[in-house]
Automatic annotation (TrEMBL):
GO biological process, one term: base-excision repair, AP site formation via deaminated base removal
EC code: 3.2.2.27
Active site: D65 (proton acceptor)
Location of this chain's protein in the cell: Cytoplasm
Catalytic activity entry: Hydrolyzes single-stranded DNA or mismatched double-stranded DNA and polynucleotides, releasing free uracil
Protein name: Uracil-DNA glycosylase
Pfam families: UDG
Keywords recorded for this protein, A-Z: Cytoplasm, DNA damage, DNA repair, Hydrolase
CC annotations in GO: cytoplasm
GO MF annotations, alphabetized: uracil DNA N-glycosylase activity
PANTHER family documented for this protein: URACIL-DNA GLYCOSYLASE
Domain Uracil-DNA glycosylase-like: residue ranges: 49-211
SMART domains: UDG, UreE_C
Length: 221
């Protein structure tokens, strides 16, 4: 199956594209996009892979579902288009960066600037029906994105995995902790952050400290 994804990923994911579950997933997504408003736009479904090539992965951040509001989802987890108001979780991410690194709160919530530096911003489910959170879960996307995580763990060296919240933390079983750095914290959503499970985790400075320690360029958060 010819999936429109950055060529550096095809070597590692082509087998997935040929499996029956992925064929069924493609048919489901095509049907959904032809009969309902869905996000992100079709050409942005694999944007996380287009901006972060396989040979440039330094950090993986795992989200769950794309935003389901109008014009929010741009194919990168936690990220929105330039002019869109920042959702609560993204606000808390930026506030933690502010506290951790002293970087001023940014105007744009578009995280392509991270992805282009080697941060894979991977939602477990890559599409969603407008206004219906979780509507495309358990259709095959999770099988695919689990395979992505396993492939990164197996074929890359010294990657930082940032696992925020219970859902993301469960993905740790897919990652070789002897080869990579795994950092966990509560989810940046207000519910978790306001209970003390997010702020003060210093994941952004810890990530850069680790990258420097293994001879990699730090991320400009």
């Amino acid at each position: 199956m010819n999936v429109q994804i950055n060529s550096t990923w095809k070597t590692y994911l082509q087998d997935e594209f040929e499996k029956p579950y992925f064929h069924n997933l493609v048919q489901f997504v095509k049907e959904e996009y032809s009969t309902h408003a869905c996000y992100p736009k079709g050409r942005r479904i694999f944007a996380a892979f287009d901006h972060c090539t396989f040979d440039n992965i330094k950090v993986v951040i795992i989200g769950q579902d794309p935003y389901h509001g109008v014009n929010q989802a741009n194919g990168l987890c936690f990220s929105v288009y330039d002019t869109i108001p920042h959702p609560p979780s993204l606000v808390n991410i930026f506030r933690e960066i502010e506290q951790d690194l002293g970087i001023p709160y940014p105007q744009s919530g578009n995280l392509e600037r991270w992805a282009d530096q080697g941060v894979l911003l991977l939602n477990a489910t890559l599409t969603v029906r407008a206004g219906e959170a979780g509507s495309h879960q358990n259709k095959g996307w999770e099988t695919f994105t689990d395979a992505v995580i396993k492939s990164v763990s197996q074929h890359c060296e010294k990657v930082v995995f940032l696992l925020w919240g219970g859902y993301a933390k469960k993905k740790s079983i897919l990652i070789d902790s002897n080869k990579h750095c795994i950092l966990t914290a509560g989810h940046p959503s207000p519910l978790s952050a306001n209970r003390g499970f997010w702020f003060g985790n210093k994941h952004f400075s810890k990530t850069n400290d680790y990258l420097l320690s293994v001879g990699k360029k730090p991320i400009q958060w």
